[in-house]
Amino acid sequence: MKRQNVRTLSLVVCTFTYLLIGAAVFDSLESRTEAKRWEFLQAVKSNFVKKYNVTAEDYRMMEIVIIENKPHKAGPQWKFAGAFYFATVVLAMIGYGHSTPVTIGGKAFCMAYAMVGIPLGLVMFQSIGERLNKFASIIIRRAKRYMHCTQTEATEMNLMLATGMLSSIIITTGAAVFSRYEGWSYFDSFYYCFVTLTTIGFGDYVALQNDQALINKPGYVALSLVFILFGLAVVAASINLLVLRFMTMQAEDAKRNEQDAQQAAAAAFSTQQLAYDVESSNFNMHGKLLPNSNYTTDYDETLSICSCTCLGGARCLNHETFVDPDFRPTDIIESTLSLKRASV
To answer: Cα(219)–Cα(58) distance, rounded to whole angstroms?
Structure first.
């Protein structure tokens, strides 16, 4: 099995194993709390219905009003500020779900807008990430030269460490800012920043949703948008390094497989050529068996005296002479002995 296939299969197995582990951990951590919260809410609902004699239909209507009213605490969601915030969330693929289009035209435009905007955003974030990696490599190279390091080039590990540190700084700083403006705990703010910059976007924590923030706090709105865009660019830089590393591994494996295939083909060709040479060494250029071949005939004495070792009776193409088919090599010996006797 090829190395690439083994890696792909290993990734699939590891991913599903990771999913199973995550499901088991979340089950153990959240299921009991969920059950307790559900029991508490049901008790509150029962007490409320009994106390105020509310029918089930009226209670359902109250739920709808409360749920639908929640996004409007931030002010008009579809004025320019709120619409720009929504467009940023769509392009960045965060998808909080705090506000959604309700008209047919709005839903249709949202799908068309996302089809163009998401690839555009991915390319933009990827390009910014590459520029950030280039800038980080220059800074790392100069720092190594200043410290007189023997290796002054910025390695992939150096770049990943630099982008990781920058991402941590952005998340921790953003958590402090959102904790102050939103009234969340620092841990909840950190959780919001992480969920936002990783584009998970659960929507349980969403900035700019209280105290008419979209209208009354334009500076805070701008800060939130800058945090999202710049933070995603930094995260894209880290992802870019991981993608490049994976692509490099894929290219190395492809090159190695090609070299292995070439070596195997060369070895097969050499084996075939050797077998052909061994077989050809037993024959002359006319397909006749050579005298020194491993094959034998019953009429070795009929071999021609021609230097090309052709058999008697065949036309020698090298010497353009005919050989008598009744010719025997012993005839030459006898003729030579007769000439010697005559000279004596």
So the answer is: 41
The answer to whether 208 and 101 are in contact (CB under 8 A) is no
The predicted-structure confidence for 210-235, as pLDDT tens digits, reads as follows: 888 888 888 999 999 999 999 998 88
- Any idea which of 157-171, 264-278, 303-317 has the lowest mean pLDDT? 303-317
pTM score of the predicted model: 0.69
Terminal Cα-to-Cα distance of the chain (whole angstroms): 84
Nearest to 192 by CA among 208, 212, 171: 171
Three-state DSSP string of the chain: CCHHHHHHHHHHHHHHHHHHHHHHHHHHHHHHHHHHHHHHHHHHHHHHHHHHCCCHHHHHHHHHHHHHHHHHHHCCCCCHHHHHHHHHHHHCCCCCCCCCCCCHHHHHHHHHHHHHHHHHHHHHHHHHHHHHHHHHHHHHHHHHHHCCCCCCCCCHHHHHHHHHHHHHHHHHHHHHHHHHHHCCCHHHHHHHHHHHHCCCCCCCCCCCCCCCHHHHCHHHHHHHHHHHHHHHHHHHHHHHHHHHHHHHHHHHHHHHHHHHHHHHHHHHHHHHHHHHHHHHCCECCCCCECCCCCCCCCCHHHECCCCCCCECCCEECCCCEECCCCCCHHHHHHHHHHHHHHHC
Mean per-residue pLDDT, 292-318: 48
